Amino acid sequence: xxxxxxxxxxxxxxxxxxxxxxxxxxxxxxxxxxxxxxxxxxxxxxxxxxxxxxxxxxxxxxxxxxxxxxxxxxxxxxxxxxxxxxxxxxxxxxxxxxxxxxxxxxxxxxxxxxxxxxxxxxxx
Length: 124
What we know:
The chain has helices at residues 2-16, 18-22, 28-54, 63-81, 90-111. By secondary structure, it is mainly α. The mean pLDDT is 86.
């Protein structure tokens, strides 16, 4: 019985939840703005996790991945915002500023890694 109630509740949510959001997509321009803002909301926890990873020296090379995702997010925001509304350019900066930070720190971490040397050991 609980499974049936859960399935019914899930189906009601799936059927009726998107209706108010569909009103936000009245034309292609508004849909682009909606997707750019939703992507910014989804990427913020990832950027915060990347900033936390910057605090630890051994994880700094991995923030390049977050930088690449930030560049892709800023490209999507640029394609969505620039043709429609220039007053929302802050959506572009939300992705671009962390992306540049992650790429600079991550590339420096790759370049400043100590080189591993192989020392041959002679057996007596």
